[in-house]
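Reply to dn_fold:

You asked what the input looked like. This is it:
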Amino acid sequence: MICWIKSLEENPSIRLSVVLLSLFSLLNGAEPADTNYVEAEVPEYRLPKLLKSDLRGPEFVKNWYEKRRPELQALLESHIYGKTPSRDLGPFLTQVVETDPQALNGSATRKQISIIIDDAHQLSIDLLVYLPNQVDETVPCFIGLNFYGNQTVHADPKIQINPRWMAGKSQIGIKNNRATEATRGVYHERWQIERLVKRGYAVATAYCGDIDPDNYQHDFTDGIHPLFYRDDQSKPDPGEWGAIGAWAWGLSRILDYLIESESAINAKQVAVIGHSRLGKTALWAGAQDQRFGLVISNNSGCGGAALYRREFGERIHHMIKPVGYWFCRNHAEFAHREQDLPVDQHMLLALVAPRPLYVASATQDQWADPYGEFLAALAVSPVYELFGKTGLPSPKMPAPNAPVQGTIGYHLRNGAHAVTAYDWEQYLNFANRHFKR
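and this is what came back:
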């Protein structure tokens, strides 16, 4: 399929956002000088084929699961995220650290659980779970990682402050690379815990740094990577996982715990969600682990839902120096060479099929290329249709705050790079529809 340069004439507010953001970046040096925010400068490109046959019905389904899907996953492993090591460290010991059945003014039960990955190296995932009370049946659940510790997702004074290393961010209360009391509840708007509980959903979250530090000087000597090394190994091989792969692995271990130990949660109705780089992570987790019943990408951009070949906003060479550790080392070979990548992100989204998939963008987040995110979701629709599902129901980019929802959902929200109450309302409506609530 050839994708031609398209104008956004139907959405003048998007064009205005691009102009304003470009001016801001120019005046403030906020982004690399070679960042493209001009739609007319997007190169003509051809997306790699999702399907290699014209099979239909049961033949397609059989071919997809036995052949094409594994091929796509292998390509994404080799060139972007790296292969997750096959060594099995589990089963892991778990310890319920605290339970309060009267949390959130009695509307929820709060649990804090330690999933012990390696006691000798003091590696554990500190999991925070809120379960809605007064529900007569098992409940669906949203799983997602957070950036600065569980205490940031809600002002609840009983949530333990994460003691691990964190990237410096003094404006939210990170001092000497550690969280302080000042961080409590600073990102509550991103999580909307009360809203989810009121709608009958459980929430499970953990700090991504429990699994692998998000350290710009990452050398892969800490976190979970060394647990998988050979005796003669000190860093991942070129085709082995980076931090995104490790974080995705952690999301699957959280899912293990919920399935095995939380009988109040419906194991078939667990949605994995992430924002920004953790949106990339949620997509990769959902692509690899088909137990996730629904997958949500919020503003995941380059290396997430956005198409690489558009060369719009953030690109591979922008990421390699500061955050190349998010990906496998092979990924750096395609800096300035996106057109040569054997894969593109519609292939990542296709691995979610036929499960429900939601991609969300923001008008002021041009760095993440909202149009490229939309086009990737649109490009994967034919796979959903072969499963007898409705893919993305609109072939045109919707106006801001006008969501479109089939088995693939998409919306463009007015505003900046964030997760808002508006976003959550769309995700909850989407989940209700597909979980038949």
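The CA atoms of residues 371 and 397 lie 7 Å apart.
Hope that clears it up.
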